[in-house]
Amino acid sequence: MVFFLTFGFLSAFSWDVWSLIAFRFFLGLGVGVDYPICASYVSEFMPTRLRGRMLISSFSFQAIGMLFAALMGLLILNIYPEEIAWRYMLAAGAIPALAVMILRVYVPESPRWLIEKGEYEKAAQITARTVPAVKDQIDVILSKANKHAAKIEKKKLKYSDLFKKKYVKRTVLAVVPWFSMDIATYGVGLFTPTILAIIAYSNETNYIVRDIASTQRAAYLDIFLIVGFALNIWLVERLGRIKLQIIGFAGMFIGLLILTAAGVSMGSNGAASLYLVIPGFVLFNLLMNMGPNATTFILPAELFPTKLRASAHGLATSSAKFGAAIGIFILPIVKDAIGLPSALISLAAFVLIGLIVTAVFRVQTMGRSLEEINPGDIT
Questions:
Q1: Residues 85 and 122 in one domain
Q2: Are residues 75 and 12 in the same domain?
Q3: Which pLDDT tens digit goes with each residue over 81-127?
Q4: What are the CA-CA distances from residue 138 to residues 41, 132, 133, 248, 294 (Å)?
Q5: Contacts by 82-85 with C-beta closer than 8 Å and gap 24+?
Q6: Selection from 360, 364, 374, 352 nearest residue 242 by Cα
């Protein structure tokens, strides 16, 4: 959070493109650390029946943030329709980090992590304070932990274990779908106003008017990101992570095909493209957050034992953000080289890869405790 607050704010004062890249890089370190910590922490604290819902509830603030970012961008563009508007946008992004940083000071450590470190008394105290109903069972838990203390010390897992036979299929399931999804998610999500401007407002010559109009539509479309997360919270403990991920990838794929059709028709039939582009974005955003954008965050936090959980989630997250970088940097290049429809079809191909890998390497975690998913994990 310190990195996020400091470098998010400094980004607004960048004096050239290289200083901006440097500040965003260091901000990214903070984001990169927070992803696996947040997911591991929530999964280790929540009871089995609520674990999926609580993980997505925490992650769903991403969609709320995206909506507020679009609204903030729209507000700033209307107040300061100037070339420096981006500075105000970047500075505004650092403000929520201050509140989160203060709140984090009062959050207790994960009992499972403490047990892995041999700090059983602290783990017992936090568990008893967090869940008073199990206070009478603390002595039993401590007895079990002390009994297996020597075993815990011997049973060490390394980062390389993620790629060994026992865990490699789970690693593929955690990494590849998230990587594939983020190429499309960031490729489409970040350039939603741009795609809207190309397809729906190509006849508007005033770029400020075009930007405001496309940003308004983008803010409207971001509502469906929130609706998608709400649906996931409702369905994740009913249908399960894998089924939702497959349904979501299928919806994203169809949404991209509709957007491709809108891009193809924009030259000959502007009205047709306008009628297609909104449904395409709605389907893409809704099914993305109902499915893989939520479930890919959950699975790495559930598929691995405590010793590997944060490392596995960190690997999956970093792979996903590498995919995001590909989507962000490559999409404009591909669009300029072969046109928007072909670029969107390329994104659809990656979505299809995510669907196939999910179906082939599926591991169902719904309704199972972390210990049932990972037999032998002492905690």
A1: no
A2: yes
A3: 677 788 888 888 888 888 888 888 888 888 888 877 778 778 888 87
A4: 20, 10, 10, 41, 33
A5: none
A6: 364
- Tell me: do 103 and 192 sit in the same domain: yes
Based on its alpha-carbon atoms, the radius of gyration of the chain, rounded to whole angstroms, reads 22
Question: Do 146 and 216 have their domain in common?
Answer: no
279 CB contacts (<8 Å, ≥6 apart)? 258
Q: In this structure, what DSSP letter does residue 201 have?
A: S
Same domain, 239 and 129: no
Indicate whether 311 and 167 sit together in one domain. Answer: yes
pLDDT bucket at 57, cuts 50 / 70 / 90: confident
Fill in the DSSP letter of residue 46: S
Q: Considering the entire predicted model, what is its pTM?
A: 0.77
Q: Are 331 and 343 in contact (CB under 8 A)?
A: yes
Residue in 106, 159, 124 with CA at minimum distance from that of residue 310 = 159
User: At residue 309, what is the residue type?
Assistant: R
Euclidean distance between CA atoms 2 and 204, whole angstroms: 42
| Non-local CB neighbours of 334 within 8 Å, separated by 6+ positions | 342, 343, 346
Kindly state whether residues 296 and 147 are assigned to the same domain. no
Question: Where in the sequence is the domain holding 237, given as residue range(s)?
Answer: 2-107+157-373
Report yes or no on 379 lying in a domain.
Answer: no
- The three-class DSSP label of residue 94 is coil
Q: CB 102: neighbour CB atoms within 10 A? A: 10
Number of domains composing the chain: 2
Residues 199 and 273: their CA atoms lie apart, in Å, by: 7
